[in-house]
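It would be a great kindness if you could assist me with a short task in structural biology. Thank you for your consideration; the sequence and its C-alpha cells are set out here.
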Amino acid sequence: MINLCDLGQVYLIAGKTDMRQGIDSLAYIIKQRFELDPFSGQVFLFCGGRKDRFKALYWDGQGFWLLYKRFENGKLILIQIQNLKKSILYGQ
C-alpha cells in the first residue's frame, strides 16, 4: 500500500507521453531526458496525448509501482511546454 503522505517530491512530466510505454521506457525517459533518478523514491507523472489519462511511476525501495488513471469525464489541464519537469507538493 502506498501512503501518499510518505511520498517525496512529485514531478509532472509535461508533454505527450505514449501510454503504451511501460516501466522500463518511462524510467529511461526520466533518466536520459530529464537527468533525474527513477530509483529516488520520487513520483513521476506522465500525461497521455488525449489528456484524459496519466501514468505515475514510483520506486518504493523494493520495486516499481506503475499506476494508471483514466478520467471518464473531463481532462487534465497541463502546460504546453515540451521537455519541462515540474515539481509539485503534496497539497497540490
Remarks:
- Helices lie at 23-33.
- DSSP finds one helix and five strands in the chain.
- The chain has one domain: 13-88.
